[in-house]
Amino acid sequence: GAGLSTGAQSLGPDGVRMKKVLYMGDDSLTGAAAYLGGVLTHNGIDFDYVPSAETLSAEKISGEYGLIIISDYPAKNIPENAANILCKKVEAGCGFLMIGGWASFYGLKGEYHNTPIAEILPVDCMTVDDRDNYCHGLIPTIVNDHAIIKDLPFNEPPVVCGYNKVSPKKSSLVVLTLQKIVHKDGMIRVHKDDIPYLVTGLYGKGKTGAITCDFAPHWVGGLVDWGKKRVKAQAKNGNEIEVGDVYVQFIKQIMDWFLA
Q1: Cβ(214)–Cβ(100) under 8 Å?
Q2: Whose CA is closest to 225, among 212, 234, 216?
Q3: Cβ(176)–Cβ(142) under 8 Å?
Q4: Rounded Cα distance, 202 and 255, in Å
Q5: Percent of the chain that is helix, strand, coil (3-state, to 5)
Q6: What is the DSSP letter of 237?
Q7: If we measure between CA atoms, which residue out of 77, 60, 64 comes closest to residue 25?
């Protein structure tokens, strides 16, 4: 239900209370949200969860959060008053991350391009269907160094299988792009695309981010299995997942940067 919490506030290694995350979308914790929810739980990150079918209340968004995540969550479920509170929180220093999906950015039906949230994103949304489902796979490629990707094995990259098309804002930093794998006449090659994948920025005092792919099937592709070791994880009230250890570390480093 609304306000579903993973439990008590977590303490960091120095005994200081860690900032809490508000995570909205990806269906439910027994659906696609089992992935990000499970990894957050595995990494000891306390979060409240709002399922995709529930409306975001002004009361919920007014809570004390260090990071707000929207992932495949319908814009129509965010009333204007809640959207305005969200934007003011980010301007005052709360982090904000949008993760790709059919109900992220423009998505299937024009979700966020005409909302106050479009202003705080580090990318501009399209004004038409922005989804590119790409079954042949896309390879994440480093464009700029960043704490989020430090020491991750991008020399042995995974493939992802879809994304939302966006345009980075001039003040933003493109950290990762995607390059399409092309199969033609029995030959496989990598097309040198500059498709934005991970983009960071600032809105007021708040760190902002856009990840144009998803962390759950099906767009996640092989990213979910990145790493040689397997990790089992499960959010409270969620389904158990088994994923790759580098996938877990990648998400951890994203959270560490936003919550620092």
Answers
A1: yes
A2: 216
A3: yes
A4: 16
A5: 20, 35, 45
A6: T
A7: 77
| Cβ proximity of 179 and 191 under 8 Å | yes
What's the pLDDT tens digit per position in 201-238?
A: 999 999 999 999 999 999 999 999 999 999 999 999 99
Structure tokens at 215: 């962390």
Structure tokens at 99: 């993760």
CA 167, CA 186: separation in Å to the nearest integer?
33
Question: Rounded to two decimals, what is the model's pTM?
Answer: 0.94
Cα(224)–Cα(50) distance, rounded to whole angstroms?
Answer: 22
What backbone torsions phi and psi does residue 247 show, to the nearest 5 degrees? -55, -45
Q: Amino acid letter at 186?
A: G
User: How far is 154 from 162, CA to CA, in rounded Å?
Assistant: 18
Number of other residues whose CB lies within 10 A of the CB of residue 15: 6
Cβ atoms of residues 43 and 23 within 8 Å: no
Question: What would the pLDDT profile of 108-138 be if each residue is shown by its tens digit?
Answer: 987 899 999 999 999 999 999 999 999 999 9
Cis peptide before 183 (omega within 30 of 0): no
Determine the 3-state secondary structure of 2 from DSSP.
Answer: coil
> Mapping DSSP to helix (H, G, I), strand (E, B) and coil, where does residue 183 land?
strand
Rounded to whole angstroms, the Cα distance separating 117 from 139 reads 28
Residue whose pair of structure tokens reads 């079918």 in the numeric block = 53
Which residues on neighbouring strands pair with residue 201, listed in sequence order? 208
| 21 vs 35: CA distance, rounded Å | 15
